[in-house]
Write a structure and sequence with these properties.
Helices cover 27% and strands 25% of the residues. With 396 residues, the protein is an alpha/beta fold. The chain has a seven-stranded mixed sheet with strand order 13-12-11-14-15-19-16, sandwiched between helices. Strands 3-2-4-1-5 form a five-stranded parallel sheet, with helices on both faces. A five-stranded mixed sheet has the order 6-7-10-8-9, with helices on one face. Strand 11, helix 8 (258-265) and strand 12 (271-276) form a beta-alpha-beta unit.
Amino acid sequence: MAWITVIGIGEEGLTGLAPALRTMIDTCDVLIGGQRHHEKVPEFTGERLNWDNGFDLALDEIEKRRGQALVVLGSGDPLSYGVGSTLARRFGGDSLRVYPAPGAFSLAAAAMAWSIPDSQLLTIHGRPLEVLNLYLSPGARLLVLSRDGGSPAQVAALLTAQGFGGSRITVLENLGGETQNQYDNKAEDWSFERASELNTLAIECVGDTALSRAPGLPDDAFDHDGQLTKRQVRAATLAALQPLPGQLLWDIGAGCGSVAIEWLRLGGHRRAVAFESNADRLARIAHNAANLGVPGLQIVEGTFPESAETKVPDAVFVGGGISQPGVLDAAWEALASGGRLVANGVTVQAEQTLAQFQTDHGGDLVRIGVERAVPIGSKTAFKPMLRVTQYAGTKP
């Protein structure tokens, strides 16, 4: 049963709300919101709660007041990167009645006359700036919720560094309010030091360095020391893993993180953990993940299975350590029922281990051979890479 009312409010404040919603605010026992929201309701005389001491503490205080008339104020649409999502995760959707107002994305799209379904809706509020890297492609339109007034200049610098300096950035300040304002320029020519703290960005991407999100990025897209699942084998590995939206991947012996990174680049709210015992490679994994737009990749230092996580993976890729006793068995044991295990090996010992594993657990065993054309004097010949033996199996 719903016991929390969540009301979206715009920069225009109470004047933008229907009379029934204003009555809910006027008559509630407890009004909850950020400082900016409370300032828009100066005449409220009941108890107030804010987020000043963090969401966790505030949510605990809300729980203590179950049974009272509670109203939470959110910005625009509270379920679009807003407080409504936080409340739903903590208390469940059945606990909420949500009344959205036009959010920043809708207001920004209206100001730009952009089609929302044809735009990418993103946020860098509380998220690394590098999440934008995943979405940079010629002709793309991005609507981005900023972190603060310094975000436009930071985004301009990132676009320029990524070869998208010709992109046009429009800053939309205080959308829906009396001080709404907008201005624009190319990223490479950006000269505005700081915007209003409340701003949204509209970006029209112009550049020619985009990377496809289809599996099999060029090997030189990754910083690596040779420990890299090569391009054609990597594409086959992602296909064998059969990724689905929302799934969690463990990449064991991650090297430079290429398989986990390409898994995340597919989108669909996928998650991944990269396990790597070599300390020098950890920084490479982090750099590659940020540069390729998936800074949310979780990186775990240590030898598997000693460093194993508690969350159950939907898929596991073993790219290193196959011949070490217990690695494959531990990965199979950790895997969720119906999950996929894929393992690649190039040595005779690894191939023997994979053959025995297939005998014990079923699945497919294939050998992948790739030859690349290279110069031989004044001519060209195909040079074979080391053949890869790949196991792929589904846990019952």
